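Weekly sync notes, structure subgroup
Attendees: PM, AL, DS (notes)

Item 1: joint prediction request from the bench team. They want all two components modeled as one assembly rather than separately. Inputs as received:
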Amino acid sequence: DAGVTQSPTHLIKTRGQHVTLRCSPISGHKSVSWYQQVLGQGPQFIFQYYEKEERGRGNFPDRFSARQFPNYSSELNVNALLLGDSALYLCASSLAGQGPYEQYFGPGTRLTVT
Amino acid sequence: GQNIDQPTEMTATEGAIVQINCTYQTSGFNGLFWYQQHAGEAPTFLSYNVLDGLEEKGRFSSFLSRSKGYSYLLLKELQMKDSASYLCAVRAMDSNYQLIWGAGTKLIIKP
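Output from the run, pasted for the record:
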């Protein structure tokens, strides 16, 4: 079975630009969560979507937005990029939004803002 | 607010046993996860605890004490491939049931 996939793998952008990151969950998983991970730190929660509805939002500015499509894939959009947005962006899928369902992570998108 | 503490780095010898601790402060605890993350890779699931006690899974075991806000991950018969960061994550009511992650413990295995 295919795991969680993310694209692109790496991305270099300039300050002020916009970026769209994509994620496809494991087949049958309806929940997708997005995380930002800075080197040496744990993942920071950005968004969770379940059945195409936003179920949670972390402490990130409005420049960050996301959506989930009918096939449960998801996009994370970041506007007006700042140098501090440089990080590994992880997507994780799970069967449901809560409960003892572990999250399965994709390989991540390494975003560098210059 | 939530607070999760783990040691920054630990060193152990191949074949030995190591215990990685995690303490947390949350309201409305709803589960604790341990993940392994190799450098440059995504985290992979190791264990889940929601009730007090020990969960054993092969060479890895995880313990939880909800009254103490404490968990540990026990790794036995250490192998060089166990060199990685180990992340503790807690789900709680005061985080709207989203996972709050510790900074991770970097485990270095020496021959």
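Discussion: The first strand of chain A starts at residue 5 and ends at 7.
Action: AL to compare against the crosslinking data before next sync.
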